[in-house]
Structure to design on (1117 residues):
């Protein structure tokens, strides 16, 4: 919402510099998003007449213009625009004028030709956005007159305000002025125009019937005769332009002017075109169609409100846009003026469905003032009367169901308790009264009547907010409540940090790709297609929610590789989304870890995993060779803890790398943290350190390729028993003399007892036991 | 061995020791000159053949000679050990600047760094950290937060819906505020919690917008919590995070789930104001939706953009950089 300072001042004797008023507006919750000084940059600009146009002898893009700046003498100007002709009146910035960009106009030579000033485009003097050419002025202007006087522009300040949805009143000049007046302690008053009424009464010429009282709370109609459609007076059009509306004609402009000033949108009908001279207000029938003012035929649904004529044909979409059939044009002589109160939710739904958000609908949506129509009608008639229009006697005032707005009990103690202040009932009452909230004592407390222009306010808390707003948020003290609780992170949050710190310690960088995928991304990564889809994606490339971190990480590798950044080690910790196995209120959303090691292999991924397991103290995991789709079929293991699968480690399948255009081998680790971190992990019980010597033995076995090393070590652990305190695979060897499809696995076993020195006999026994069990259970043979 | 022999043996021995070039040959000499088969040892063995007077003189003489040889060996040993040590050190000389290949750790994402910094700050103020799902139901994201159906306030959020359940029943949460409800549903007051998380809007990516970004929300519900407590807590947060020199202000604003509502601004050192957080007193309807009696409990909530704090801290001028994951960006922080 844009407001002009001079317009505000018509409602209250507001004081202060523009900066002070800007701060006050922001403090009232009407945030000033922009402030423009109007007219100040017109000093030195005069009306000049084009006497002659000549080509510049040495330049194509500028021409020489002789103008009369009031003394009848030709004055040569160099000008880069070509849109004017001899006899046109144009704005001339005379020598010494300071333009709003700070430039001072001086006499200067341009390509050898003197220029004695500058002809201005509208945008250069703050009079519009048009910078295509020089501004052409009304031919009736006096040559040499200051432009400001000729245009009748007064200096002004334009504030661009951000108005929140709970402030329907602030969608009008009057509402904003009311707030400022309350803050400044100034008297606020609305105008009270009383137009002379002439002609035949509206009651004999028009009828109104509200068929849907929920849709329409109030429908006020009057008739104006002697309409002469033409341009508005400049004081009307200048203000409309300043507030960002395009002047159309005096009738439309008067409607817009009243809407901006008082917040009441209106609609005008050419009465001669309203069949049966009657309005029926109802919901549209399914499939009913109407051609709106913009010439577009729009199908309606039964949730849309319409105004129909006496023959029940829709001639306007209620509160959103009028119909073409009754539109005002040059021939219009009589208009019916409608000012209504429409159900906000209905208007909002229709405007949204039709994509027709208008100045009017945005006011109805917030809840317009149902009691302003009478004044607004008078104001409309007053503005239009300058072109001879006359208001006829009588008003058709039909009421549907307006929301019942009983007074609100406001407890003084509650106000103070909520705000942390100590205001008396009298102080609170005074604050509220200045905003036209009517207060009356009720025991210790107040009964507060909500003004009709505050549709948003209906509960005690709403009134408390008004008190706080006017009292000033900055006047409320500042205290810090002491939490009686112990703050802290949950186990999961701590684990998450352990994971990130461990990976970072391994030289792996954290990334955050967006969780949206393109259709096909999951399949390309070898994953089954069950991504949750976005109903209304911005772009198709972002229409699938990731069901795995894999596509995002691979895309990140590919992106970096395209910038010659290879060999990257990256991880992401984030949510994945899947359709749940059984019905549940929300999708299955899990926290996953994904690691990609570009240029690394399955071994490097296993190392990352074992370091991570160590960091989390996640014990007793098993790696079991598997071939899940999308991962390298012969270089992948699933990670199991106590029989539960918590993730996969290995490499990305070559075919997937091709699909994602990654040319390096990529080591891969993925962990379902929601599963992994709910398995007992963390603090281990203390094991006392033996003071007795330890003994090492080395054993090398020839083992078939089908037998995983982890099986050998678990058999060794099981058969060695408690005396084994460390087991290490120190060598893997393939080739002669080891047999085909076999490899040699060499282990060091360290034995130690906590209560004695082990004898040679004991060690020899356990050695024999280890050898025989491995040989027997795994069909392996000891290498001598 | 006669006297002359001993004297010449001594001078020859001392010369031989002096000539020893390394510890190894010195050790050989040690054995040769002082060991079981050395000249002096055999001379000692032969002492018994002498008369007592002579034996005494001769024995003393032998011991003196052995003593001198031993001292000479020890002295030579020190010299040679020092020489060998120097030689080893010289041979092992390294240019460490040649070896500094700029080995690096991985880096936590700049959002994580900001996220954890904020968590730590609020934990220090006695807050816990709560989380909730990123795909939410309409009730937690809007309904429970006092956004009636088809209320225009829902238009303030460009919501992305997902195909799950009834149409428009499930969405990508547009703010972290639904976690407020989840906290109220799962625990009794007092509540002092922050809720960092990922949120979504149907915004085209540009320097200041992303369809995915991060927020951090705070919720306090206790007996007698006031608007003054909200203002004071925001001040305490600001001076802890930004430093003491930042001036703050609250402006009236509107959010369906808080009332009174405010925008929280901070004034940067250059004098410009920055809109940092939306905040307010938890709306009675929201407390009710969370199963709490608004007459007994009151609370405040605030929420702000986490990404922007990260941008501000590092002087990053384009939000998209955070999600592009260019290694040249990641490795900077």
């Amino acid at each position: 919402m844009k407001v002009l300072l001079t317009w505000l001042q018509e409602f209250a004797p507001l004081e202060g510099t523009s900066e002070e008023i800007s701060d006050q507006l922001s403090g009232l919750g009407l945030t000033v998003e922009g402030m423009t000084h109007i007219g100040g940059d017109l000093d030195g600009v005069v009306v000049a007449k084009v006497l002659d146009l000549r080509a510049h002898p040495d330049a194509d893009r500028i021409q020489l213009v002789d103008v009369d700046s009031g003394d009848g003498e030709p004055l040569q100007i160099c000008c880069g625009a070509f849109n004017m002709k001899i006899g046109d009146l144009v704005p001339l910035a005379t020598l010494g004028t300071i333009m709003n960009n700070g430039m001072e106009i001086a006499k200067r030579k341009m390509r050898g030709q003197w220029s004695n000033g500058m002809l201005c485009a509208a945008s250069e003097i703050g009079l519009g956005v048009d910078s295509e050419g020089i501004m052409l002025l009304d031919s009736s202007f006096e040559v040499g007159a200051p432009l400001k006087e000729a245009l009748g522009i007064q200096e002004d300040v334009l504030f661009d305000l951000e108005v929140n949805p709970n402030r329907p009143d602030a969608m009008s000049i009057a509402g904003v002025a009311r707030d400022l007046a309350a803050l400044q302690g100034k008297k606020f008053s609305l105008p009270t125009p009383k137009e002379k009424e002439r002609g035949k009464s509206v009651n004999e010429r028009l009828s109104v019937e509200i068929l849907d009282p929920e849709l329409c709370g109030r429908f006020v109609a009057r008739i104006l005769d002697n309409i002469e459609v033409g341009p508005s007076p400049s004081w009307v059009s200048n203000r409309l332009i300043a507030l960002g509306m395009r002047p159309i004609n005096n009738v439309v402009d008067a409607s817009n002017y009243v809407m901006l000033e008082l917040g009441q949108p209106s609609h005008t009908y050419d009465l001669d075109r309203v069949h049966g001279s009657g309005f029926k207000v109802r919901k549209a029938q399914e499939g009913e169609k109407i051609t709106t003012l913009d010439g577009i035929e729009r199908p309606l649904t039964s949730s849309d409100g319409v105004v129909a004529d006496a023959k029940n044909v829709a001639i306007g979409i209620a509160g959103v846009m009028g119909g073409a059939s009754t539109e005002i044009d040059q021939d219009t002589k009589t208009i019916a003026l409608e000012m209504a109160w429409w159900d906000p939710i209905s208007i909002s739904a229709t405007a949204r469905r039709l994509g027709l958000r208008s100045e009017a609908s945005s006011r109805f949506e917030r809840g317009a003032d149902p009691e302003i129509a009478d004044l607004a009608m008078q104001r409309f008639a007053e503005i239009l009367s300058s072109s001879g229009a006359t208001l006829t006697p009588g008003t058709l005032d039909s009421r549907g169901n307006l929301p019942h707005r009983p007074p609100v009990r406001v407890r003084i103690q509650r106000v103070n308790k909520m705000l942390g202040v100590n205001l008396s009932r009298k102080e609170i009452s005074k604050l509220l009264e200045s905003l036209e909230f009517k207060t009356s004592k009720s025991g210790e407390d107040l009964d507060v009547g909500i003004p009709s222009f505050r549709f948003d306010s209906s509960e005690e808390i709403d009134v408390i907010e008004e008190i706080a707003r006017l009292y000033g948020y900055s006047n409320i003290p500042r205290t810090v409540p002491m939490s009686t609780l112990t703050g802290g992170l949950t186990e999961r949050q701590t684990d998450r940090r352990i994971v990130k710190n461990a990976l970072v310690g391994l030289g792996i960088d954290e990334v955050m790709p967006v969780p949206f995928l393109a259709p096909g991304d999951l399949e390309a990564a070898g994953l089954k297609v069950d991504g949750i889809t976005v109903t209304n994606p911005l772009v198709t490339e972002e229409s699938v929610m990731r069901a795995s971190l894999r596509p995002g990480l691979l895309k990140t590798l590919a992106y970096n590789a395209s910038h010659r950044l290879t060999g990257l080690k990256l991880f992401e910790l984030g949510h994945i989304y899947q359709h749940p196995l059984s019905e549940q209120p929300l999708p299955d959303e899990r926290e996953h870890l994904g690691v990609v090691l570009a240029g690394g292999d399955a071994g490097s991924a296993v190392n990352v995993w074992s370091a991570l397991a160590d960091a989390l103290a996640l014990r007793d995991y098993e790696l079991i060779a598997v071939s899940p789709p999308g991962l390298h079929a012969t270089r992948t293991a699933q990670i199991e803890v106590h029989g539960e699968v918590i993730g996969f480690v290995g490499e990305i399948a070559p075919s997937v790398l091709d699909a994602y255009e990654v040319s390096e081998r990529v080591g891969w680790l993925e962990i379902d943290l929601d599963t992994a971190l709910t398995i007992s992990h963390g603090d281990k019980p203390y094991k006392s350190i033996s003071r007795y010597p330890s003994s090492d033995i080395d054993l090398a076995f020839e083992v078939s390729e089908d037998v995983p090393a982890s099986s050998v070590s678990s058999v060794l652990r099981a058969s060695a028993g408690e005396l084994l305190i460390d087991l290490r695979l120190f060598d893997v060897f393939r080739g002669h003399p080891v047999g085909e499809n076999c490899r040699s696995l060499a282990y060091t076993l360290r034995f130690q007892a906590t209560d004695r020195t082990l004898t040679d006999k004991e060690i020899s026994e356990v050695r024999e036991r280890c050898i025989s069990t491995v040989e027997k259970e795994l069909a392996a043979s000891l290498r001598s | 061995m006669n006297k002359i022999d001993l004297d010449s043996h001594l001078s020859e021995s001392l010369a031989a020791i002096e000539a020893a070039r390394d510890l190894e040959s010195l050790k050989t000499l040690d054995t040769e000159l002082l060991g079981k088969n050395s000249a002096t040892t055999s001379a000692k063995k032969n002492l018994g053949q002498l008369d007592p007077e002579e034996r005494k003189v001769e024995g003393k003489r032998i011991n003196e000679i052995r003593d001198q040889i031993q001292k000479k060996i020890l002295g030579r040993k020190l010299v040679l050990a020092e020489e060998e040590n120097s030689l080893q050190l010289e041979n092992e000389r390294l240019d460490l600047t040649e070896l500094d290949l700029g080995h690096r750790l991985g880096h936590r994402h700049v959002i994580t760094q900001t996220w954890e910094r904020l968590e730590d700050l609020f934990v220090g103020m006695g807050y816990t950290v709560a989380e909730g799902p990123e795909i939410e139901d309409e009730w937690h994201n809007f309904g429970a937060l006092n956004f009636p159906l088809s209320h225009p306030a829902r238009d303030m959020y460009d919501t992305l819906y997902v195909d799950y359940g009834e149409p428009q029943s499930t969405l990508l949460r547009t703010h972290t505020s639904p976690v407020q409800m989840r906290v109220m549903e799962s625990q009794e007051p007092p509540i002092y919690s922050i809720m960092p998380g990922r949120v979504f809007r149907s915004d085209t990516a540009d320097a200041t917008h992303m369809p995915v970004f991060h927020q951090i929300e705070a919720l306090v519900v206790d007996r007698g919590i006031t608007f003054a407590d909200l203002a004071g807590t925001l001040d305490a947060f600001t001076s802890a995070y930004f430093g003491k020199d930042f001036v703050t202000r609250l402006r009236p604003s509107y959010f369906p789930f808080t009332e009174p509502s405010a925008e929280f601004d901070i004034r940067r050192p250059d004098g410009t104001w920055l809109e940092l957080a939306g905040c307010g007193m938890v709306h009675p309807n929201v407390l009710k939706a969370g199963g709490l009696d608004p007459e007994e409990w009151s609370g405040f909530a605030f929420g702000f953009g986490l990404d922007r704090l990260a941008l501000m801290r590092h002087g990053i001028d384009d939000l998209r950089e955070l999600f592009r994951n260019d290694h040249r960006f990641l490795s900077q922080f």
Notes: The mean pLDDT of chain A is 93.
